[in-house]
């Protein structure tokens, strides 16, 4: 038992560095996915026209195609080096992983923001706040899925755990995997606690009504002359 604790303690800095890559990839994926998803939701709000149809199709694609497929597509389709004005710029693997993993966040955001907007138009402010837990769940799913980034070459937590097992032998397999899993469990519990606190915040509760009042989202659309 003491040997196991010594092993885990010795390799903890190595694993923590990998965990930071998980966090970085997740943050980038969430930022990209939220921005693009919000754009698709804005396109779908119009309900008519080419932009609405394109937004709807893209939202369905991002929502239904597995994240792993997008991850490998990004890894294979994006070149390792881009040439800009004659200068070669390396395209890092962690950025490819973030782009691939942003797909699920795009789908979640595009759908849930559209529903939130519709609820705001109906002055159902409580229902519009359901966007927050939906978005929070997509963030947590992306964080857990960040362990797949090692498949495209990112040296994240699980990949480093596999490296430790390869270096020390299969006797360390179970404790190393349990130790790696504990990183994800603790981080997810902390994230859930934060989201719960945000949902009960008076500022967050008042936000939908403030948005509706400022931009008159619930006002009826003007009729054509």
Describe the structure.
The chain is mainly α and 225 residues long. It has one domain: MetI-like fold (Orthogonal Bundle), CATH 1.10.3720. Helices cover 76% and strands 4% of the residues. It has 9 helices and 2 strands, in the order αααββαααααα. Strands 1-2 form a two-stranded antiparallel sheet. Helix 1 packs across helix 4 and helix 1 runs antiparallel to helix 7 (157-168). The longest helix is centred in the first third of the chain and has 44 residues, at 2-45. The chain is flat, with a radius of gyration of 21 Å. The chain starts with a helix and ends in a 10-residue tail after the last helix.
- Summarize model confidence as the mean pLDDT: 84
CATH superfamily: MetI-like
In CATH terms, what is the fold-level topology?
MetI-like fold
- The total of helices stands at 9
For the largest beta-sheet, the strand count, sense and barrel status come to: 2 strands, antiparallel
Strand residues, percent: under 5%
The gross shape turns out to be: flat
The total of beta strands comes to: 2
Relevant terms:
single chain, 225 residues, mainly alpha, MetI-like fold, two-stranded antiparallel ribbon, 9 helices, flat, disordered C terminus
